[in-house]
Amino acid sequence: xxxxxxxxxxxxxxxxxxxxxxxxxxxxxxxxxxxxxxxxxxxxxxxxxxxxxxxxxxxxxxxxxxxxxxxxxxxxxxxxxxxxxxxxxxxxxxxxxxxxxxxxxxxxxxxxxxxxxxxxxxxxxxxxxxxxxxxxxxxxxxxxxxxxxxxxxxxxxxxxxxxxxxxxxxxxxxxxxxxxxxx
Length: 183
What we know:
The protein is mainly alpha-helical. The protein is 68% helix and 3% strand. It has a two-stranded antiparallel ribbon. The radius of gyration is 23 Å and the shape is elongated. The protein starts with 6 loop residues before the first helix and ends with a helix.
């Protein structure tokens, strides 16, 4: 199987710290919190009702179903191929402890960013296009988070499964050898 996580992405994920996540989230909120000129011609700001509808949709139980994981995600100023990373990890039979820890760090980073997107959607004046873009990004991040959480939870027991499979093979070889000896 081809490894899709390059070294730069691996280092960016591995270097994730709570302080770094908080710093990224603050910068994201600050960018959207700036005073902005009136929207461009043909664009209008979303109404409070539209804002509430988007927020409610984001909190539905299965909002992430049918939504694509973002292809790229920025961590510490580096673009990480998030979609490829998630699919690569999902295709593995077992994860090492280091991979599990990196997945947990990535989940923390994605969760913080998704919460920031929700906050931006809730507190800022946005055009329809901006609001829909932020909504899609938040839903895509939720999709990635759910995939990664299920991946870490599922693959906790892979050592037990691989040990059981290895023992079955050893037992089969033992019995074949036994049958060869008695015949």
